[in-house]
Amino acid sequence: MKRFLLGASSAVLAVTAGLPVAAETKSDTDKGVLEEIVVTAQRRQQSSQDVGLSLSVIGGEALNEKAVRVVNDIENVVPNMEVDSQFGSGQPQFRIRGIGAREYSSNNASTVGVYVDEVAHPYTITTQGAMFDIARIEVLRGPQGTLYGRNTTGGAVNIITNAPTAETHAGMTAEYGSYDRYKLEGFVSGQIAPGLLGRLAAVTEQGGAWQYNRDTGEKLGDTDKSAVRGRLTWDALDDVTVDVSATYQVDKSDGLGFRLRGPYTSADGKVTYPADTARRITGWQISSELAAVAGRDLDAKPGRDNDGLNLAAHVQADLGWADLTSITAYQNFSRSEYNDWDGTRLQESDVYFYNDLDVFSQELRLSSHDNGPLDWMIGTHYADESIDGGFYTQFRGIQPLLNTPYDQDVQAVGIFTHNSYAVTDRLNLIAGLRYEYEERSLTTSGTRRLNVAAGPEQTYDTDLSEFSGRAGVEYKVTDGAMLYANVSRGVKSGGFTTYNGTSATPFKPEIVIAYEAGVKSEMFDRQLQINGALFYYDYKDQQVQGLEYDRDSGRLGKITNVPKSEIYGGEVELLWVPIEGLTIAQNFGYKKGKYTEYFAIDGTATDKANPPNGPWTTIISNDRSGEPLQFPKFNYGGSVSYDWTLVGFDWRAETNYNKRDAIYSAASSSVLPGYWLLNASFSMSPTDSNWRFAVWGRNLSNTYYEETRNGFNGSARPTASPSQGRTLGVRLTVEM
Questions:
Q1: Could you tell me which of 167, 213, 597, 632 has the fewest CB atoms within 10 Å of its CB?
Q2: End-to-end Cα spacing for the chain
Q3: In 252-401, at which residue ranges do the beta strands (DSSP E only) sit?
Q4: Residue 98: left if φ>0, alpha if ψ -120 to 50, beta else—which one?
C-alpha cells in the first residue's frame, strides 16, 4: 500500500493510506503490528504511549470513515466527550468528563481549549466551519494550562493541519450523498523555491436539505460552506524556520429546524399546531421587523451568514542550547445567524445573533534540547480580544423586537512552565506551573424594546489572577507498560451573561482540582494496546445556567456559580490487531457527578410568592446539594475494520458505532433518551494505484435522537432539535 507523510508543525506522523491513525497495521509474517503514533500533545514529538495523560488521537484519514464532518462529531469517537450546538445554533459547546458550558451566546471563553496548529480559538463559534486537510486531532482530557496558550478546566482539542511537503504532491476528494449533498476537497503541495515549501488546500460543501416546512413544503438543511488555506514553510536561516498560514472560511448554511414534540398553541390562542409526526417536519417564518434588522429577505430561512479569517506565523529558531518558538496569530470572525426556535410560522421564539470578533495573540516559548534527564520549557502568552454584537429576540406576545447589544474586551497574560526529569530510565517526574492575569469588561445599554430609547450604557468588569499547575509521575513497569498519576489545578475565566442586559453582572471563574491515575500498555508483540484512566474532580464555583430576579423585571436567566461539586469516573481504550489486516478498536467512558454545596433560587416558588406583575422582592431558594450533574453517565464506542488484497485490488471494510446514555435537559425539564449510532464504509482501489472509491452509510439504523430541547415557546412539551436520519453516499479520492 502507498504511504504518505502527514506533517504537523515540527511533527511527522506516518500513516498507512486509507487507515485511521488509531488502526494502523504493517506486514509481519502472519500477524499485524500496531504502528507508532507520534503526537505533539506536550509541545514536543513523543509516542502517544509515552505521554502520561489521558489522550485520544483521530487521524485525518479516519475522519471521513468515522463520519466526523464538523467538530461536533468528535463526540462519537472519543470517550467521555460531548459536543453540541445549543438549541440548534451555530455555537458549539465542548464538554470533557462532564466539564463544559451550555449556552448559545458567543462572548464567553470555552471550558475546553480548542487549538488549530497551536493557535487558541477562545470562542468556539469560530470552529463551526469546514474541517479540511487535517493531519490529526488530539483530544486531551483534564485541566490544561502549563502547555497551552489559555487556561482550561475541561481539556484541550488540538487540530493539526497538513504541512507543506518537499515532494510535489496533489490530491482531490469528491463525495456525493443523500439529499443531493456533495463535498469537493483538494490540495497541492511541494517546493516553490529552494528552502521554500508551500501547500494550498480548499473545500466546498453544498446541499443536503433534509427537512421541510409543514406549511409550504420548502426544504431546509442545505450546507453551504467553503474554505481555503495556504501554508508556507521557509528555511530563513540554517537554524531558523518560518511557517505562515492563512485560512478564510465562509458559512452560509441553513440552520436546524425544530420539531414540535406536542401540540403547540400560539400566545393569543388563535392557532394550534398538532405534534409533528416525523423528524423531517418543521416550520419557520421571519417577521418583517426581524428581517429588517438582520438584513434578510422576507423569505429567509433559518441559517448563518458567517465568515472568518485566520492568520498565523510560527517562527522556530535553534539557539544551540535551546529552541525558541514564536507564534503570532490574528483571528477575525463575523457571526450573522437567524434561528426560529418555536419551529412554526409564528414569530414567538425567533432570534437573530450578530457579532464581530477580533483576537490577537502572541506566544513565546523556550524549550530545552532533548539531551539530558531534564526536559524543560518556559513560555508566555498574551491575548487581546474584542467581541462586539448582541442579538434581537421576538418571543411570545412581546412586541416590538427586543435588542440586547454589548461590547466586550479582554486582555490576558499568562506565564507558564512545564518540566520533566528522568530520575531513572523508567521513572519520570513532571512539574508544571502557570500564572494567569486577565481583565474582562462588558459595556451594554441593557435590553430594550425597539420603540423605547436606549438606556445609558453601563460597564461591568471582572478580572482573573490565578495560579494553575500540574504535578505528576510516570513509571515504566516494562518496555510496553507505563503507569502514571497526576494532580492538576485548572482555572476557567469568569465572564458575563448576555442573554439580557439586566443580568450582566459577572460570574466568577471556576476551578478544578483534578486527580488522575492511568495505565498505557502494549502487549503480545505490539498487537494489543490497552489504555485506561481513573479520575476524581474537586469542582469549585462551577458555572451553570441559573436564575436571578430583578425587582422590576422579575425572573432572568443568568450564568451563576455552584460553590462545590464533584465528578468521578474513567475511560478505557483498546486497540487490537489479532491478524494482519483486521483491526478492532473499543472505547468506554463513565462519569458521575453531583452538587455537594448548592443553594439555588426556586423560580416556581418565587413566582408564587410575589405579585404577578411585581415587584419581585421575596426570593425563595432551595438546597440542591446531592442533585446529579447534567451529563450522560457513559458512552461506548468502537470500530471493526478489515483490509485485504484480492484479484489485483486492495479492499477495506469498516463499521463504527457509538452508544450514548440518556441525559437530563434542564432547559426542558425532561430526559433526552440515550441512543446508538452506526456507520459503515466499504472501499476499493487497484493495488499500487493513486485512486480509491468508497461507498458509505451514516446512521444506518436510522436512529432518532435529540441534541437539545427548548422550552422558550412556553409549550407543555418543548420543541426539540432532531437528528438527521440514515444517509448514504459515495466518495472518490485521487492522489498524485
A1: 167
A2: 14
A3: 259-260, 264-265, 272-273, 281-282, 303-304, 306-318, 322-340, 349-368, 374-395
A4: left
Q: Cell triple for residue 712?
A: 422558550
CB atoms within 10 A of CB 538: 16
Contacts of 543 (CB under 8 A, 6+ apart): 101, 111, 492, 494, 495, 507, 510, 559, 560, 561
CA–CA dist 164, 243 (Å, integer): 9
Q: CA 461, CA 428: separation in Å to the nearest integer?
A: 43
CA nearest 546: which of 530, 561, 536? Answer: 561
pLDDT in tens, 282-296: 999 999 999 999 999
489 neighbors 540 (Cβ within 8 angstroms): no
Q: For 213-735, which CATH class?
A: mainly beta
Tell me: the pLDDT tens digits for 341-353?
A: 889 998 888 999 9
Q: pLDDT-based confidence at 324, cuts 50/70/90?
A: very high
Nearest-angstrom CA–CA distance, 577 and 31? 8
Q: Which residues contact 149 (CB under 8 A, 6 or more apart)?
A: 113, 115, 118, 119, 120, 327, 361, 363, 381, 383, 414
User: How far is Cα 637 from Cα 444, in angstroms, rounded to an integer?
Assistant: 45
pLDDT greater than 70 at residue 523: yes
| 3-class DSSP assignment, residue 290 | helix
- With bands split at pLDDT 50, 70 and 90, how would you rate the model's confidence at 24? very low
For the chain, give the number of residues: 736
Return the residue matching grid coordinates 472519543. 78
| Global pTM exceeds 0.70 | yes
Where is average pLDDT lowest: 142-156, 394-408, 546-560? Answer: 546-560
For 84-134, how does the pLDDT look when each residue is reduced to its tens digit (9 = 90+)? 887 777 788 899 999 987 777 888 888 899 999 999 998 888 887 778 999
Quick check: 389 and 406 in contact, CB under 8 A?
A: yes
In 666-725, which ranges are E strands? 670-672, 675-686, 691-698, 706-710, 719-722
Please say whether the beta carbons of 281 and 217 come within 8 A.
no
Dihedral sign for Cα 287, 293, 296, 302, please.
negative
Residues 6+ apart with CB under 8 A from 568: 534, 535, 536, 537, 591, 592, 593
At residue 628, does pLDDT exceed 50? yes
C-alpha pair distances (Å), 668 with each of 135, 297, 712: 39, 32, 9
Q: Are strands 528-550 and 510-523 parallel, antiparallel or unpaired?
A: antiparallel
Record the cell numbers describing residue 489, joined without a space: 489545578
Grouping H, G, I as helix, E, B as strand and the rest as coil, residue 424 is coil
Q: Domain boundaries in the chain? A: 213-735
- C-alpha cell, 735: 492522489
